[in-house]
């Protein structure tokens, strides 16, 4: 049994190390050939996550990372690819009673017992998702950037 637990912990550690975090630096290194060919102003703009019409798919990836969703649409003008980036958070919904804890208390000298029930409360959070950025591309170049303003 202990062998299985150790094996599980080793597998979990390997998974955490393999996935890593997607940062601007890691994405720029991953697409180093594209990033090296950009001028300094464009590099700074991508680091600030600011896109422009005409940017390539690689530039969008360097700036924002992999999209949460990809969609394709066919129009009379050609085939468009839409990259969608979402924001994820948990919204506080309040506190709810989720059960009761029983307490049995003896009365000294009488031998009697009293039972009390104490409510158990938990904070409730609702998972939320909201589209934040939509990037439309045609022939590998950005044609439209839609972004939610805070």
Structure write-up:
- By secondary structure, the chain is an alpha+beta fold.
- The chain has a domain of 99 residues.
- Helices cover 31% and strands 46% of the residues.
- It contains 5 helices and 4 strands.
- The protein has a 4-stranded antiparallel β-sheet with strand order 1-2-3-4, with helices on one face.
- A hairpin with a 2-residue loop joins strand 3 and strand 4.
- Helix 2 packs antiparallel against helix 5.
- The chain is elongated, with a radius of gyration of 27 Å.
Which structural traits does this protein have?
4-stranded antiparallel beta sheet; alpha+beta; 46% strand; 150 residues
Uncertain spans, ≥5 residues at pLDDT below 50? Answer: 14-19
As laid out across the biggest beta sheet, the strand order is 1-2-3-4
**Overall mean pLDDT:** 88
What is the distance, rounded to the nearest whole angstrom, between the alpha carbons of the first and last residues? 51 Å
> For the CA atoms, what is the radius of gyration?
27 Å
Count of runs of 4 or more consecutive helical residues:
5
Give the strand content: over 45%
Q: What would the principal axes of the Cα set say about the shape?
A: elongated
Query: Strand pairing plus helix content: what structural class?
Result: alpha+beta
Task: Say how many strands there are.
Answer: 4
Proportion of residues in helical segments: 25-40%
Instruction: Give the SSE order as H and E letters.
Output: HHHHHEEEE
Largest sheet: 4 strands, antiparallel
């Amino acid at each position: 049994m202990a062998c299985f637990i150790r094996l599980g912990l080793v597998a979990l550690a390997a998974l955490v190390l393999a996935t890593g975090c997607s940062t601007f630096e890691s994405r720029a290194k991953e697409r180093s050939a594209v990033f090296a060919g950009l001028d300094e102003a464009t590099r700074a703009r991508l680091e600030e996550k600011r896109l422009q019409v005409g940017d390539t798919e690689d530039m969008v990836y360097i700036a924002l990372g992999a999209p949460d969703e990809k969609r394709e649409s066919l129009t009379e003008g050609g085939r468009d690819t839409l990259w969608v980036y979402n924001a994820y958070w948990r919204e506080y919904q309040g506190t709810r009673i989720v059960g009761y804890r029983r307490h049995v208390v003896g009365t000294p000298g009488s031998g009697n017992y009293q039972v009390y029930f104490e409510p158990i409360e938990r904070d409730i959070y609702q998972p939320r998702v909201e589209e934040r950025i939509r990037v439309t591309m045609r022939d590998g170049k950005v044609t439209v950037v839609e972004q939610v303003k805070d």
